[in-house]
Design a protein that fits this description.
The chain is about 15% helix and about 40% strand. It has helices at about 15-20, 50-70; strands at about 10, 25-30, 30-40, 80-85, 95-105, 110-120, 120-130. The protein has a 7-stranded antiparallel sheet, with helices on one face. Strand 2 (about 25-30) and strand 3 (about 30-40) form a beta hairpin.
């Protein structure tokens, strides 16, 4: 699959995220960078759709990255709660974009929400609460 113009490999730290991606970072929308994911063969379940866990992990990655990148020096978020509502199936070869809002950035807690989109179709809604410590 060809990655859309304006997206670069995210190069997140190695480990678990290497298995769920690869993830891509795009331009910021309202101050928050868009995160992209191409649905690959290793994301597919028995129904030839992206597994729900792939979508959930993508939501967690995008929401937590928004908190991480919210202010200098970078924050180190830990997921407290994550809610994902599945609206449509993502298929092999689909390009997905996670668009995030930071609803509130408090002293030690961040509240986020947003959606995962395939073009103009929303495939999931998401929200999360993250704990962090400022350096």
């Amino acid at each position: 699959m060809e990655i859309p113009k304006g997206f670069e490999p995210a190069a997140f730290t190695p480990g678990f995220l290497d298995h769920g991606g690869p993830y891509y970072l795009g331009a910021a929308v309202e101050g928050v960078r868009v995160v992209g994911l191409a649905v690959c063969p290793h994301h597919i379940n028995y129904q030839d759709a992206a597994h729900g866990g792939v979508i959930s992990t993508f939501a967690d990655v995008a929401l937590s990255h928004a908190v991480y990148d919210a202010e200098p020096p970078r924050l180190t978020p830990s997921t407290v709660t994550l809610t994902v509502n599945y609206l449509a199936a993502a298929k092999l070869g689909d390009w997905l974009e996670a668009r995030v809002r930071i609803d509130r950035l408090g002293g030690r807690t961040a509240y986020t929400s947003g959606g995962i989109w395939r073009g103009e179709e929303q495939v999931a809604t998401m929200s999360g609460v993250f704990a962090y410590r400022r350096p």
